[in-house]
Structure formats: structure tokens, C-alpha cells
Predict the 3D structure of the following.
Amino acid sequence: MKQPVTFLKGGQFIRFAMGLWVLLLLASPVHADLTGPAIVEQHCAACHASGVANAPRIGVTDDWAELLAMRDLETIVDNAYDGLGRMPARGFCTACDRNDIAQAVDAMLPEELAGPDL
Ligand code: HEC
């Protein structure tokens, strides 16, 4: 008597699905492991690449020189962390801690203005 050919049946399918789920979990990025440039790409570039609503543009000396003339880098990082005007707190990166935000700001600064490590 022939067995019907099935792809995966019963418990096999469950195990297959669980395995897939674990693989997906392992493959998804963990926020704490993101470096500054990766945070910028994922959470900040949407506004800071083109300068939406006057956001200082990534790597644009004029934009950052203007800010640094008004306040120091620590305060600028605080503002990014706490939010300021139309800058949302942490750029909506809820998993980012202050150090992550400092790394992201550092990655947005033009090279000639890059400050000491925060
Ligand atoms: C929804 C758009 C948006 C996103 C997303 C966003 N920003 Fe901003 N950001 C702004 C705007 C608009 C300003 C200008 C705020 C102002 O001066 O009123 C700003 C200002 C800033 C400033 C200058 C603060 C100061 O002291 O003037 C820093 C630093 C900054 N953002 C960092 C970040 C970082 C880091 C991220 C990602 C984690 C991020 N932003 C994500 C819109 C955004």
C-alpha cells in the first residue's frame, strides 16, 4: 500500500516551524549590538540625510559647526537623547541608551568636527 506523499506532517511541521522561528530570531539585529553608523542608518538617516525640518545633515560641516558654536557636544547628545523641538527623543530608537545615541551623533559629525570619544 502506498503512503501518501506529504511535505511535513503533524509534529514534524511544528518542529519545522519552531526551528524557522529560532533562526529568524537569531538573524534579527539586536539593538545594543548596533554601531553608531548602523544606528544612524536605521534610525536617524530618514530625517538627517536630507535635513527634514532643519535637522542637521549627516556629515555637513556648516550644519554641525553652527550647532557646536551654540552648545557643546555633551549638550547636543543630551538633546538628541531627550528630544528637542521636532527632534524626537532618541530618534524613536527606544532600545538606544545614551551611549548608543552618543555613538550615533559621533557618526553623523563631519570628520573635521569629530570630537573626543563620548
Ligand atoms: C523624525 C525626524 C528625525 C529623526 C528620526 C531623528 N532626528 Fe535628530 N533632529 C531632527 C530635527 C527636526 C532636528 C532639529 C531640532 C530643532 O533644532 O528643533 C534634529 C536635531 C538633532 C540633533 C541636534 C541637537 C541640538 O542640540 O540641536 C542631534 C544631535 C540629532 N538630531 C541626533 C539624532 C539622532 C542620533 C537620531 C537617531 C537616533 C535622530 N536625530 C533621529 C529630526 C529627526
Summary: Residues 34-113 form a domain with the Cytochrome Bc1 Complex; Chain D, domain 2 fold (CATH 1.10.760.10). The pocket of heme C is lined by residues 39, 43-44, 46-48, 52-56, 67, 71, 76, 79-80, 84-88, 90-93, 101, 104-105 (CB under 6 Å). Residues 70 and 76 are 10 Å apart (CA to CA). The mean pLDDT is 85.
